[in-house]
């Protein structure tokens, strides 16, 4: 009796502890603030709903069968030689096949409609932000505004944003959960991500790919301003910063490994810095002219063959 009470207490304590721990989980992915995020949430919930068509009946039957065929139920039919049912076979094969076919169709369509390289249709001119993953911080370059920031970006509400992403170090992953999916950042390559914020607010951005000792602190704020004027005010504030990023030496100093790097503003930035970062890892294509001539997203959309590049390098 004492052991039974002890086990019951342990079970209740475990349930309480699990509830407390789960309450701290971040549900940002299920609270989207942009069109892309909403589409992705719909896809996730649709997939879960379809899979529950199988999961819920299985769980119910597991309990129902255990109760019906318990040892104390003498009325349950005992069929030790039963081994096959055409009806059951039809159900357990047909239902999953239909669900998989529906999931495949939905996934095919949404994979293309939510392609991160695909621009968002809008009457507003897209804002371009160049993103460079560093150890262990994010550098954001606004080429049209001539400014740069570390671990903070601002974008106007309802204006599509084109992120051009690369890395000055190991592979990383750029992710703003409430606005849309993640995209990899890789040295010598440019990936793209198109997002839009439909509500004003400050959203957390993270690195979703382990990249070393300071990875856990590689976070940034994405500020969606309520209007263009507020965004222009933010740009004006950055332009008042004393720091600049006008030379390679200044960039190299910033790129040195650092953890929990604070938000930093640069009132001006060297033209073509983003292309320089890509070019220094590209071997035979180091000039700005060659890189600028490349179609946006060429590296990823065409599927770079790293084996062929390694072979060509060995022959040289």
UniProtKB/TrEMBL annotation:
Membrane-crossing residue ranges in chain numbering: 43-67, 88-108
Localization terms from the record: Cell inner membrane; Cell membrane
GO process terms (BP): ATP synthesis coupled electron transport
Membrane topology listed for this record: Multi-pass membrane protein
Keyword Nuclease: no
A GO CC term attached to the entry: plasma membrane
Pfam families to which the protein is assigned, alphabetical: COX2, COX_ARM
Domain Cytochrome oxidase subunit II copper A binding: start-end pairs: 124-237
Main location: membrane
Keywords: Cell inner membrane, Cell membrane, Electron transport, Lipoprotein, Membrane, Oxidoreductase, Palmitate, Respiratory chain, Signal, Transmembrane, Transmembrane helix, Transport
Domain (Cytochrome oxidase subunit II transmembrane region profile): residue spans on this chain: 21-118
Molecular functions per Gene Ontology: copper ion binding; cytochrome bo3 ubiquinol oxidase activity; cytochrome-c oxidase activity; oxidoreductase activity, acting on diphenols and related substances as donors, oxygen as acceptor
Assembly notes: Heterooctamer of two A chains, two B chains, two C chains and two D chains.
Function: Cytochrome bo(3) ubiquinol terminal oxidase is the component of the aerobic respiratory chain of E.coli that predominates when cells are grown at high aeration. Has proton pump activity across the membrane in addition to electron transfer, pumping 2 protons/electron.
Family: Belongs to the cytochrome c oxidase subunit 2 family.
Protein name: Ubiquinol oxidase subunit 2
Organism: Chimaeribacter coloradensis
Lineage: Bacteria, Pseudomonadati, Pseudomonadota, Gammaproteobacteria, Enterobacterales
